[in-house]
């Protein structure tokens, strides 16, 4: 079951010969905003921990990925600059 806060909540479900498959979700609007935060990665950082700290929910790590075009989130390199949207913007605009 897909929860309403899941990043897949707005996906289209389609059936193929193997059963029900999950479609692609729409990409979120990542246009730079005045209230975005810039964060420099340090040794030991993880996206789920950063999402918890700045967005209030570790499950929102994928938003940081989208904002920074990260395709392999387990390989954060120290010194990498990340753009993180404000918690208010995420709650009001991206999770509606």
Automatic annotation (TrEMBL):
InterPro entries, per the entry: LysM, LysM_dom_sf
Q: Which CDD domains match?
A: LysM
Protein name, UniProt field = LysM domain-containing protein
Q: Which organism is it from?
A: Shewanella fodinae
